[in-house]
Amino acid sequence: MFKQMMNEFVTTWKACDVNKDGVLKRAEFLNFIEQNTENNRKRFGEARMGDSHENNNWYDAYNLLTPTKEGVSMEDFRSAMEIIRHLIIRKTMEPLMREVFLRMRKFKKETMAKIQEEMKAEEENPELYKKLHDEFVALWKECDANNDGVLTMDEFKVFNQKNFEKQKARWGESRMPPEDEVEGWYRASNMFTPSKDGISLQDFE
Ligand SMILES: [Ca+2]
Ligand SMILES: [Ca+2]
To answer: Residue 188: CA atoms inside 13 Å, Cβ hemisphere, count?
Structure first.
């Protein structure tokens, strides 16, 4: 289904590139949006198209990606989709980051001093950085119970639990995030490779 949609997308794109120069200029682009909406309408029974003003704005936005060249290439369109996806991920992650900072503010002064000292030492000492990173990777692998290279939600919860226990051992205190927050992190990290369920080390880093 997805592949079929992509093929149709590419075919429509090419058909709308009337002068075959590899980019859609404004008129070609506006026609493409119309054709593509029509395809979706046939496929899903309904599809909503923005008004002319909105579609012109989309053209201007995509065109900004390669400002030296007039027209929107398929590559521009793909980059734009990538940017939009990352903005959505950021929107999901920002409130989670805020929670982490709020929790850290509740740490004792000594704990904060310890964490800052550790961060500074890590920055200055590549060996220490490597050691801590290796430990992190080892813990990740340990929690990947079925060894398929990704952590599922349940495996990720175990990872979090263990990671916080380790922090507690190192810093003297650590605050475990509530379960819904851990689930939020999982969902946000999972968006990096939405076609595959489970988060890889790469998604997380
Ligand atoms: Ca063209
Ligand atoms: Ca796994």
So the answer is: 20
The verdict on pTM exceeding 0.70 is: no
17 alpha carbon – ligand 1 mean position (Å)? 4
113 and 180 assigned to the same domain: yes
Query: Cα(48) to centroid of ligand 1, in Å?
Result: 25
- Taking the CA of 16 as reference, the closest ligand is 1
Per-residue pLDDT of the chain (205 residues; tens, 9 = 90+): 678 888 999 999 999 999 999 999 999 999 999 999 999 899 888 888 889 999 999 999 999 988 888 999 999 998 988 888 888 888 888 888 888 888 888 899 999 998 888 889 988 999 989 998 899 999 999 999 999 989 999 999 999 999 899 989 988 888 888 999 999 989 888 887 777 788 888 877 7
For residue 53, the CA-to-ligand 1 centroid distance in Å is: 21
**What is the Å distance from ligand 2's center to 177 Cα?**
22
- CA-wise closest residue to 38 among 73, 6, 9: 9
Taking the C-alpha atoms of residue 157 and residue 155, their distance in angstroms, rounded to an integer, is 5
Q: Are residues 40 and 127 in the same domain?
A: no
For the chain, what is the domain count? 2
Same domain, 112 and 72: no
CA of 176 to the centre of ligand 2 (A): 22
Query: Cα(167)–Cα(74) distance, rounded to whole angstroms?
Result: 46
Q: Do 72 and 112 fall within a single domain? A: no
Closest ligand to the CA of 148: 2
- Angle between helix 153-171 and helix 109-124 axes, rounded to 10 deg: 100
